[in-house]
Task: structure prediction
Amino acid sequence: MYQPYPSSGQAPEPVRPGPPGSVVMAVRLMYAGAVVSALSLVVGLLTISSLRSSLHKSDPSLTASQLHSLQTVVVVGSVLIGLISIGLWLWMAAANKAGKSWARIVATVLFGLDTLFLLLGVARAGAAAGTLVSILTWLIGGGAIIALWRRDATEYITAQSKPQAR
Result:
């Protein structure tokens, strides 16, 4: 097979290998985490009608105006947190797929924070459906973190962080 010598005098750039299976699995799990977060947000928005009665039950002394204001704050806060959560899942998936050395650390710290929030949520009574979604999200994150810290993932991230020879 004939391959012409590069005419510019430069050697062809080395091709960096794609991510190994453990990184691909971690990225898929992160996409799954984004989907679960999006579904949780949609379900939360679809159940806004029950929020008012739930808030009134938790504090019957609230006036109609206070109840409306509190409901608005809870809905806006939930939407913001949901969108931030989806964004973080997608950002971490892209950064870890690219082999960014900082991304695995950030993903691990976010998983640690999620663990803390899950423990605080379980300690709180009620919200069984919310706790189930939180546990599912935590399991997805845990699987992604385990995959990211496997040996082949470490070798890939190390190789990606080395400067390319020119």
User: Anything to note?
Assistant: The helical segments are 21-46, 48-58, 64-97, 101-123, 128-148, 151-161. The chain has a mean pLDDT of 86.
